[in-house]
Each structure stands twice: as structure tokens, then as C-alpha cells.
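Table 4 source record.
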Amino acid sequence: MCGIGLIVTGVEFSCGISASRSKETPCLEDLLAALRRRGPDSFGVRTVRLGTGKIEQLERDLQISSEFWEAGNCGDDWSSSQHQTGSKIQDERVDEQDGKIYVPQEAFATLEFVGTTLQLRGSHRVCQPLRDSDGNILVYNGEVFGGLEVLPSQNDTEVLLERLGRCDSSFGVCQALSQVRGPWAVIYFQASTRTIWFGRDVFGRRSLLVHWPSVDDPRFLLSSVAPCDNEKLFYDPFTFWKELPCGIHSLQLSNGEVLTCKGEIRTHRWEDPLLDKLMLWDRAHSSPSSFSSSAAVELALTALKESVERRLVNSRMNVKQSRPEDVETPVAILFSGGIDSMILAALTDQCLDPAYTIDLLNVSFDGPSAPDRISAIAGIDELRRISPSRKWRLVQVDEDIGTNESTMFSLICPSETYMDLNIGTALWSAARGEGAVEDHNKVRISYKSAAKVVLVGAGADEQCGGYLRYRTKFKLGGWEALAAEMRLDMQRLWKRNLGRDDRCIGDHGKEARFPFLDENVIQTFLDIPLEEVVDLRQDLGIGDKKILRQVARSLGLSQSASLAKRAIQFGSGIAKKSNRRDFGSNRAANKASAGSVKLANLE
């Protein structure tokens, strides 16, 4: 998991915008400050300057590892260290043809690539941005779980750069990115064609925000996170930044003989029919059929187990781990005790070496009274019954509302509703994993989870009919209406949920992984008739998420298999607390439709 960013200046876009930017909008230092928490192992900057008919890359690039920070060479104000250790970076560049260093006179466009890294794969340290011998540059935030061969000793970002470097056409780049199975966001500079490629996977499981050039700021910017927790910035981040739509996009930079660089942005098609099917969420059967229920459960269980296993292999612990318990805990699960997190916990137990402890992260804004805290305690008891030899650790995270709101505004941006703030805060607090655990005598002990991989149940409700409003759609329009509503939710998951969730969890230098959103899992659910996935003719707690309830029972989770859906903002108690603070009562909040209220409209 990484933080990636790009600033493009000096380019005139097809809309004709080429004016000077306002000084109050984000600069390189702001981007790096916002991204550093996502990549605690290393960070780097690479700069490319475009001249008439040629490309020059800087003589030296800023790349600093975590060991360098610890030595005291780079404090919070990284820019001062940059200027001390690499002052020539600001003024000199190297001609790729003759290798001579000179002060640029005719450069007119600048590309600044930023990468911060949490390294979970490979046997040697990798510092982004990566550059190959041809001058191609890659910053990558994602995981390759399939499609490209990555050996246990290899780093997937290096493998992807090598694969992209062999591409000599637009089709080749699109084909290479379409092969990747797993979550990703990418920025890639193809030097030979002066093209910047950027995009997100088919479901947008990794955050990438974009600032499209405007009159107020004609630059083109990309960033995993919006910089806005800075007193020197006086811009509106919620209008400045947008979620980049899923897919593959390119910015072609002209190679003219005049001191003007023109840019053309295009969107490209996927070069894999499966991704088109997943994007369209094209279900084979939406009406009742004679498909066997037992066969459906077996298919779903197999796909989910393989998905969890893929997300546990080829991940190494952070090399700086020092406490004995850190080495024992490679993975954590965002844990409410509900059916989704219980299935993930049971499957993780089956796939993970029994020597490891599994951390179950549970957040409450209402102490022991929060519904999710009650179900989490019951859930860990059930897990201990089905797997008594496993060491399970329930991390009870107790939080107060309003303590980190400036940070949360930056992380949820450009999402801007009251509900986004509540959900984002709950996810951020849980993922931090700092709370208390109980010893064998039921004594609470302070504890902070060191797991760098966090499994999350996102996508289960949208695919398996978990939301209460689906019952209304089914009642009014039958199977076709239900399928259409579920398809709509899946197609807007990137904009409403996943970018926000990735930013909030990644802020702690931890990587969110979504087993229910594995490409093969989604394909499997689409191949099963809808009535075997969800049957809203049956009662609540039975027909909703029908197939997951059957999977849970097959795993021995009979108690949690009947639990009803409960959203994290309600289960954690944050909605109740914040409603009382900001609206006076839950009833007043419901009357005001608090969830959809924009933060700017709160008094």
C-alpha cells in the first residue's frame, strides 16, 4: 500500500486553460505531507522537465527511507532537508542523450511524481517512484494478486514496471493494466510517447483523486489523499478534488517545436472481456431457476476462501518490527461480530498458519453498550468454539466523537456528507487498532495492533442483498428491480465508499484488503442465480444475504448466521452520539435526513 501523486505544470489543455495558479492551492510539499502517513517505509520525488523536442530528467531525485528519518536527517519539515541534501535538484537536469548537466533555458512543462511506500512484498527495499533505464516512471498503489507472475522474492511494483516497459503502443499499456488482478491505482509516464497513464481498477478499490485544470488552478494533479489539514491552504478541497472514475486514462503531451506543451486527456477501454462484464455487473440469471442451493454455497465458499488466501500470501512483516507480539500478528480484521466479519475471521483461520495470532479490531463510541461491541464479544466466543487452538485477540477500541475531525475532513474528501464523516471516523478509529485487550483473567490491558494488513467486509451487502431498502425495491418491482438496484450500488461503490475507506484505513500505514471484492468472487456471485444469493420473500435475517448465511453455517457459525445487517455508524454508536451533539436528538436527526446533510451546511 502506498501514497502516490503527480503535479503537472506548464501544460495547455484542450480547453485553452493555461493561466497561473493561485498560491493557496496545494504544492509538492503539501502532497507529500498528506501522503507520508500512507507510506511509512520510504518516500521519494522524481521530476521530469519537457523541452523542445526532448525530455530531461533531473540529475538526482529525492528518495529517503525510514532509516534516514530515524537517523534524524529528515524531520517533519521534509522540504528543508530536500533543499539541504539536493539543492542542485532545483536547477540542474541531465540530457538523456549526452549525459551532460546544464541549467535549463527552454523547459516549459514540469512533471513531479511523488511516491510513499508501505512495503509488504519483495525481499529487498523498494523506494517509489521507480524509473527504468528508458526513463519510464511508475508510482503504484496496489497489489498484484493475479494476472502477472510475481515470485515470492519479487516486488509487484517492479514487476509491473518491467511489464509496462515492454509496451510500445496504447493497446499494449491497456492490455498490461487489464491483466492485473487485485486492487490498484497507478500513475505511469511512458517516456517514448510523452504519455502519462493513470487510472484505478475496475471497482476503484484504491483511492486516486484528480484535480482537473481550471481557471483558478490550470495544473493537472493526482493524489491518493487531498491535502487540507494545513493552515496555509485557503482553498475548498471538496470542490478542488474529485474521485477519479475507474478505468484507464491518459494524458498525451505534445512534442512541438514551440515553447508550448499541449495536453490531451483520453479514456481507454479495458482489454479484457471479464472486466467489462464485472463493470456492467452482468448477471447470468436474475429470476428464479432450478440451480442447486448446495452447489451455490459450495461455489461461494470456495471462491471466498481462495480470495482470503490470496490476500494472506506473499506479504511480509514490516522490517522494523521489534516486539515479539508484532511478528505473531500479520493480519487484522475490522470486526463487528456480524456475518461478514465472522466469515472473514473463520476463513482467515483456515488459511493462516496456526502459529499466528489474528487481531479482531472493534470500535465503539458508546463503550460496552454499542451493538457492535456486544456482537463482537459474542462473535469471538463463537470463533473460539470452532477453532480453540487459534489465538484470537479482540482489540476493543473506545473512542469519543469529534477528537480527530480535521484529519477526517482531509481523509473523506471529496465525500462531504455527515454520513461520510461518521463512517470514515469509525473506520479510521478501528483501523488504528489502539485500545485494550483482556487477558485470561479478564483484566483489560492497553494494546496497539501492529498488523499491516487489514481485511474488510466491503462489498458483501451490495452483492448479497444486505440493505433494508432492497426489500422495498423487490416488493415494488420483483427480481428485475432488485437486480437493477444492486447493480447500481456496485457501479457506484468506487465513488461512494471505496476511495473514502481506502484513505481512512491507509492513513495509519496499513493496507485495506477486500476479499468480497475479489474479481473471481464477484464473477462467482454473478454466475449464481439471484434467488440463491438473496431471497427477500423470506424474513429478515434469513433471506437477506441468504448465501452468506449458508456459508456461515457451513463454517460452523450457526449463531452469527442469523444476525441482521447493521451499518458501522449505527453499530459503533457514533451516529447516536453525533446526532445528539449536532441535531439535539436521533429523532431530530432523522427528521433532517442527517446522513445526507453536507458538512458545510452544519451550523
